[in-house]
Amino acid sequence: MPDRVSHDNPSVTTHRARLERSGGTRRPCLRLPDELEADAGDIVRLVLDGDERHAKIDGDAQGLLIRGAYDNHRLARTPGEGENRLVEWAEANGRKPGTSVELDEVDPGYLYGLRVPGKRAVYSVTRQPKSSLADIARQLDE
């Protein structure tokens, strides 16, 4: 059974992040802080209001960002096929481009949580797949 940890647990690092416009669209994307332990191209798990989603980290001239969160790993790699749950979350929480959010780094490089500042969150921490298994999966995708 996975462990449960709250956002204010000492093992969780909270970063201030911003929602911004994604390119020329009005849809929000998540601008990641520079100190985050992640790389462009990584697929991470992103918890939105208790629901664990999958998100691909992209990079641009300003740094790292997440353009969307999706129901599974495959959809995160091919975002045009699925519903963008990041957009739904932003709309449901009244967050528009230009507003701040809290990004909880639960398991660096693997599990993050997004929440409205001041709102409480509890995360179910599942174990990461062993790196050798993740490497095999990546090789199969290529």
Any chance you could write out the topology, listing elements then pairs?
Layout lengths: L2 E4 L6 E9 L6 E4 L11 E6 L2 E10 L2 E8 L2 H5 L7 H8 L7 E8 L3 E5 L6 E4 L5 H11 L1
Parallel strand pairs: 4-8
Antiparallel strand pairs: 1-9, 2-3, 2-7, 3-6, 4-5, 5-6, 7-8
Q: Count all strands and give the number.
A: 9
Radius of gyration: 14 Å
Strand-pairing-aware structural class: alpha+beta
Largest sheet: 7 strands, mixed, barrel
Q: Helicity level, as a percent range?
A: 10-25%
Number of helices: 3
pLDDT averaged residue by residue: 88
- What is the CA–CA distance across the termini? 32 Å
Going across the biggest sheet, name each strand in turn: 2-3-6-5-4-8-7
Strand fraction: 35-45%
Notes on the structure:
The protein has helices spanning 73-77, 85-92, 131-141, and strands spanning 3-6, 13-21, 28-31, 43-48, 51-60, 63-70, 100-107, 111-115, 122-125. Helix content is 17%, strand content 41%. With 142 residues, the chain is an alpha+beta fold. The longest helix is centred in the last third of the chain and has 11 residues, at 131-141. The strands form 2 sheets. Strands 2-3-6-5-4-8-7 form a 7-stranded mixed barrel.
